[in-house]
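call fold target=Fe2OG dioxygenase domain-containing protein
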Amino acid sequence: MPKNQPDWPEPIVRVQSLSENCIDSIPEKYIKPCTDRPSMSSEDANFNCNMNIPIIDLGGLWGADQHVTDSILRQISEACREWGFFQITSHGVRPDLMDKARETWRQFFHLPMDIKQQYANSPKTYEGYGSRLGVEKGAILDWSDYYFLHYLPFSLKDYNKWPALPPSSREVIDEYGGELVKLCGKLMKVLSINLGLDERRLQKGFGGEDIGACLRVNFYPRCPRPELTLGLSSHSDPGGLTMLLPDDQVPGLQVRKCDNWITVKPQPHAFIVNIGDQIQVLSNAMYKSVEHRVIVNSDKERVSLAFFYNPKSDIPIEPLKELITQDKPALYPPMTFDEYRLFIRMRGPRGKSQVESLKSPR
Ligand code: OGA
Ligand code: NI
């Protein structure tokens, strides 16, 4: 591997293999400091019971009834400002395709290890089968494995880096990716309108048609000591928009709301949408990318598909001129998504420190 592109600092251990061999303890490498561990207090559990991220029905969004359209736009606007996270139903993606995509990936993770290892990834591009983010030696690791692949731009789409098994997985991923790109395009229009801009403005800020899209499939094996670790450490998503297809059986995603962690209760066949760092920058922090993390449990594995809709990777991303005023000067200097992603990939998930550190000093 060329210089400046380090390989993994330590041998890779698949969390799935650990899970199969750990009876009642976990390796120290996965034990989080006390402040980062999930809270299991009954007080928090009670608070959590009554809270959920907004659920928004998109049926009628583009229909003839202006009142319906306005109401949906308003709900999305409020969810973007107050939560940075919401669930959408009646989004137009077929439920059977959603189930098929999730189950195809579940089957992939249940293939024999030697087949999965053929797709083992490296920190150079992260494409393929992985078990850690960041290349810092001695880092505390998360209790999950994943698969990462590019869907767009076309130049990065490489079927050889997508799993060949289970049979028809490539067709399923292809169809699923196509539907999600369409859906993200619609949401980009909604967000533009809600920001008081021309409906094509955000897409234009992303580089027009030349956007990026990638899929990260997360596999969270059962964990004998879920109170000591996290499936995915607190982070905000670096890209533009994320469409998460969560496990239909097992909750685990937690979203930060003030000083609490709210466990998302997934609605059947909904997508969980969240704002990423690049939209925080373009919107000059009108919309914030919100921190989230994943907890694990001792009974059931969990599979989730995170689809990331990103700007063209080599154009400068900075607050849109229309959103800069005397009262609200630009909060961020321009930076390309390539530069931004490199920064994150070296360090692994770290709350919101990345986007915060971008802020222009004043
Ligand atoms: C992610 C993510 C959440 C989940 O992959 O960025 O936040 O529920 N996933 O797996
Ligand atoms: Ni995320």
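return ok
The domain at 15-356 is CATH 2.60.120.330 (Jelly Rolls). The radius of gyration is 20 Å.
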